[in-house]
User: Which sequence fits this backbone?
């Protein structure tokens, strides 16, 4: 993810990361509210999709950086 945010990942690397991130879609939250978990996963997939499709603007990368925050998700959903 750091390479994507730093604009150092190739298009193929970004698309491969998106494939991996999409595997989280539909998974059950380990702990915490499922709706919150779904929203976080959805935001991550949405923002990474935009970047993988070629939008590497500061706005797109800032949105991805916010969506990929490990602490935000793990503080509520990590067992």
Assistant:
């Amino acid at each position: 993810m750091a390479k994507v945010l730093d604009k150092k990942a190739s298009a193929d690397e970004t698309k491969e990361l998106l494939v991996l991130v999409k595997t989280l879609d539909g998974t059950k939250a380990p702990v915490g509210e499922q709706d919150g978990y779904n929203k976080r996963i959805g935001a991550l997939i949405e923002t990474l999709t935009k970047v993988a499709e070629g939008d590497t603007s500061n706005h797109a990368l800032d949105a991805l950086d916010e969506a990929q925050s490990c602490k935000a998700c793990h503080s509520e959903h990590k067992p």
User: Anything to note?
Assistant: The chain has a mean pLDDT of 95.
